[in-house]
Amino acid sequence: APRPPEDFLGREVDAYKALDALSRRKRLVALTGPRGAGKSALAAFVAEYVDARGLFDVVVVVRPTRPASLEELEAALASAKKRADADADARCLLVLDNAERCD
Known about the structure:
With about 100 residues, the chain is mainly alpha-helical. It contains three helices and two strands. The protein has a two-stranded parallel sheet.
């Protein structure tokens, strides 16, 4: 599995676990923890890491920054699916962050 850079202080083990799960083609990797634990930062780091190294053909991050309606979330997911469907053989990573912000 790819190794995260050493400058991701304090989260190296968590980043490695997420990257390891993705490298083993796990279909779902959930980052859980209390509010403020750094789940969003960890998800962003992992997405940037795999995208920069070409580990996935398509990397899509959906992150509502304010309370979003279910329709807005569905539109974002439909856009992500459209990108993934452009190449049926593509390895795709969808990062869904802050979904609890949806009304």
